[in-house]
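Let us work through a complete example step by step.
Step 1: write down the sequence.
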Amino acid sequence: MKDDKGQFVRFGQAGQSDLWGWLVEHRCPFCNRAQYGVHFEIEVKSDKGKPTDAQLEWLAMVVKNNGIAFIVRPEPNDPIGLRERILKLLTGTKCPLCVERSKINP
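Step 2: predict the structure and record it as tokens.
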């Protein structure tokens, strides 16, 4: 963003994603546990844009901590499709308890 003098103003931390939030489910579709949330971060890039090292590190940190993180790019003739693709990527999320259980293989 630019201020009233045309100077670029930064927000947040280096590498922080463009979009972020929490998915709150009332019931886990896998274990039926009630009320859990999963953090997500989405980096939006143009068709030719490249993520910085800081952005890649940020996304990796979110995933490492059981969050959802990814980069999306618009398709040339389908600006609405970006919304649909994001929703598809965010659905089917497992609750943190299920993720932790899946790491333990007897």
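Step 3: interpret the result. The chain has one domain: 19-100.
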